[in-house]
Amino acid sequence: MTEDNAFAHLDPAYRRFAALPDDERIAWIRADRWIGFEQSGAALARLENLLTYPPRDRMPCLLIYGETGMGKTKIVRKFERDHPPKFSQVTGVDHRPVVVAQVPSEPIERDLYRELMASMGAPAMVGGTLAREKDICRSLLRTVGAKMIILDEVNGMLAGTFRQQRIFLNAIRFLANDLRIPLVCAGTDLARQALLTDAQLAERFEAFHLKPWQNDAAFAGLLKSFERILPLRSASDLISGEARERIHKQTSGVTARIFRLIETATEDAVQSGKERLDAHSFGDNLVLPLVSMTQTVRRRGKRVPQRVGA
Ligand SMILES: Nc1ncnc2c1ncn2[C@@H]1O[C@H](COP(=O)(O)OP(=O)(O)OP(=O)(O)O)[C@@H](O)[C@H]1O
Ligand SMILES: [Mg+2]
């Protein structure tokens, strides 16, 4: 089963997975992984470019926005993994080029600093004024040598009152101005609208729109890469006109739905013994996970901000 020429329809690095027993193949299908495609690659390249930008008074900032499930958080996490913290023997502290924090579900300035500090591995502060937490956050960002701050779920800011939003935008503006490092925000279109309400930020931010997939060559490319990695024992056909059309229609071109649909159909193909995907795999009898297909899922996966003792 594992000879080199077995499963020639798969990418050589993925052939061995097709030889695994069914339950292991299903676990493989369900596992979290990164799959690169045109738009995500372009967003990563944009981030990479910002990271090497020389410091100057007005650093450019970037907003990555798109519908829920378009893969914004995936891109942010991938970028973070590509630039992991390194322990410095000289200073005895972690050098952390990329600091990622989620915008708290209620836009409270203090929680933002705490999210940032927690993502730098700093212990919780006990007692202290807001000004002091802000100061410590700022000096910690310098100590770890942060070269970029990424705030995810910036649309969460809109959950606050108008006044909270103004304060929060001020805090973001402060981070962008004070540290002389690029600030990246990710969120839905609401995030874009929120940033636009601050003229100074609006001018500073460049926007990168993660657009829903069209049924075009890029989409065919994505489906082709699925064909090459899914642990099925026969060659699939996902790029015939009919298969493409069905997948596109059932998912409205939203990345998360496409991934979920294909994963579900793949599990089905393993369990049924069909061992390949084609247009018929996406018929009406496929039992789809409801949440990812019909609802806007808000996965917050939040770290609970540490409480100050006082
Ligand atoms: N590059 C990718 N590789 C693998 N899976 C991906 C990729 N992009 C998106 N996905 C799939 O889509 C799902 C949603 O992606 P993600 O959480 O990044 O969306 P989001 O744009 O941050 O959505 P939200 O606005 O709801 O936070 C992921 O859990 C994953 O299954
Ligand atoms: Mg997200």
The distinct bound ligands, ions and cofactors come out as: adenosine-5'-triphosphate, magnesium ion
Low-confidence stretches: 294-310
Please name the CATH topology of the largest domain: Rossmann fold
The structural class is alpha/beta
Report the sheet with the most strands, covering strand number, pairing sense and barrel closure. 5 strands, parallel
* CATH uppermost class of the largest domain: Alpha Beta
Kindly estimate the percentage of residues that lie in beta strands according to DSSP: 5-15%
CATH architecture of the largest domain: 3-Layer(aba) Sandwich
Average pLDDT value? 88
Number of domains: 2
Number of helices: 13
Radius of gyration (Å): 22 Å
Element-by-element helix/strand order: HHHEHEEEHHEHEHHEHHHH
Which overall shape is indicated by the principal axes computed on the Cα atoms?
elongated
Name the CATH superfamily classification of the largest domain: P-loop containing nucleotide triphosphate hydrolases
Estimate percent helicity.
40-55%
Distance between the termini: 64 Å
Order of strands in the sheet with the most strands? 4-5-6-1-7
Number of β-strand runs: 7
Protein name: Bacterial TniB protein
Keywords: Plasmid
Pfam family, one: TniB
Organism: Pseudosulfitobacter pseudonitzschiae
